[in-house]
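Per your request, structure below.
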């Protein structure tokens, strides 16, 4: 984990937030490569769940919602963790995680009694900070989709089964954030609400578990590091009939990446009750009105990014050197191609290399770098997972060819400049581009 965290900082994936002020604890900023990785991940999710299907459409609801929505959802009443404080060292703990509920696991001091703590961030809407103006930062994106159910029915007239997909920020005032970007107070979720006939809920619940599990594998996560864990009855959230977590074998242990839940008709019923609106679905064929059941695959963007970073981190010995490579899937790699001149003191070589980079940029995410000797430039690109390096040397003046080096095998091939684009698009296949 330390190696991944250090690479993330060194190479510009993820920085501590407000670093120059000493940092805001457990808050992270995505740097130039981090934002590309994150965007690629979101794009891959959107492509698989929205563009590649006929039954799911995307949406983007606001972070702020009517406060009543959080009463209907149960968050005001139920979204609590129990916390205990150490009377001696003042550290705070999540009571569920304590082996001994009375003794501080760090200093042995006495703990306060467990007290409930609502995880929602509260703020005020408008200029007056009074109780009537209280509003919450959404702790999940899901509710934004439930409250739009009627709008979707009225504007698109979808037939069951159909779904809504959304990616966006969520906020939770976690008691014990940590493990880098795994648990933070501000994070991004990618969620699907899939509306189905009640009698088909179990079938779709099971198929979504498989579908989501396979999505991580299709982007290169090692199978040995991924598992499903079905929740026991006493572990289920108040709204769920059944739930399976997809877990990743992080360096700190198996932990949740995504949860797939059968939420039954809890959400639509509750929002109908609190809003006074009719949120039933009308089935044309049977002339019945009923609440559809909802299957919800709910994943974290940051957790997925972290899993892909950890999973792709690879070290190998090359001659006497240690080579660090991020073996990221081609769709996720932040940079597809880097163009590197071998001799940066030869203006004609530099000019040619810059031109090649400019041309490639039209269709691929490419970078140009001449800020070091070639060995150093390769090392840098390997560390960020760049798929191909195109090296321009003096020979180009005679044979109009460049050397293309593949990331994982380090095999090199001489390719004519004219053929370069075609060669790279052949190799990259249907890579998700800009
Ligand atoms: P956990 O048990 O780890 O707190 P959860 O079961 O409360 O997670 P859900 O409410 O199911 O999480 O949220 C769906 C997804 O959102 C999680 O699988 C996770 O990927 C992501 N997520 C939830 N809380 C956080 C957080 N504090 N930081 C980063 N990602 C989070």
């Amino acid at each position: 984990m330390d190696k991944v965290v250090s690479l993330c900082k060194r190479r510009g994936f993820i920085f501590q937030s407000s670093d120059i002020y000493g940092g805001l604890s457990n808050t992270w900023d995505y740097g130039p490569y981090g934002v590309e990785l994150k965007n690629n991940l979101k794009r891959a999710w959107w492509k698989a769940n929205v563009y590649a299907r006929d039954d799911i459409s995307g949406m983007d609801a606001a972070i702020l919602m009517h406060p009543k929505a959080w009463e209907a959802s149960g968050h005001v009443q139920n979204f609590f963790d129990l916390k205990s404080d150490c009377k001696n060292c003042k550290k705070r703990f999540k009571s569920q995680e304590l082996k001994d509920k009375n003794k501080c696991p760090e200093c042995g001091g006495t703990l306060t009694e467990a007290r409930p703590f609502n995880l929602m961030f509260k703020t005020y809407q408008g200029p007056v900070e009074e109780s009537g103006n209280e509003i919450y930062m959404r702790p999940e994106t899901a509710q934004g989709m439930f409250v739009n159910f009627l709008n979707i029915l009225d504007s698109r007239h979808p037939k069951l089964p159909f779904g809504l997909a959304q990616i966006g920020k969520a906020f939770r005032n976690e008691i014990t954030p940590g493990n880098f970007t795994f648990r933070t107070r501000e994070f991004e979720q990618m969620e699907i609400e899939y509306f189905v006939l009640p009698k088909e809920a179990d079938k779709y619940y099971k198929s979504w578990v498989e579908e989501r599990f396979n999505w991580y594998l299709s982007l290169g996560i090692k199978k040995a590091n991924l598992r499903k864990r079905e929740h026991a009855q006493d572990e289920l959230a108040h709204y769920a009939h059944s739930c399976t977590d997809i877990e990743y074998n992080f360096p700190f242990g198996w932990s949740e990446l995504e949860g797939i839940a059968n939420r039954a008709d809890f959400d639509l019923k509750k929002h109908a009750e609190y809003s006074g609106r009719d949120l039933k679905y009308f089935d044309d064929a049977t002339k019945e009105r009923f609440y559809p059941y909802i299957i919800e695959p709910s994943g974290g963007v940051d957790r997925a990014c972290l899993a892909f970073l950890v999973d792709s981190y690879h070290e190998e010995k090359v001659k006497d050197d240690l080579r660090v490579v991020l073996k990221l899937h081609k769709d996720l790699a932040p940079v597809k191609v880097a163009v590197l001149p071998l001799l940066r003191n030869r203006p004609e070589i530099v000019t040619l290399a810059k031109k090649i980079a400019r041309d490639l940029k039209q269709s691929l995410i490419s970078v140009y770098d001449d800020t070091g000797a070639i060995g150093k430039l390769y090392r840098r690109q390997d560390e960020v997972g760049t798929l191909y390096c195109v090296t321009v040397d003096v020979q180009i003046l005679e044979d109009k060819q460049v050397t293309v080096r593949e990331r994982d095998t380090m095999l090199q091939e001489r390719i004519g400049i004219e053929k370069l684009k075609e060669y790279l698009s052949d190799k990259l296949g249907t890579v998700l581009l800009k």
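Residues 140, 172, 174, 183-184, 187, 189, 256-259, 298-300, 302-303 surround adenosine-5'-triphosphate (CB under 6 Å).

Regards,
D.
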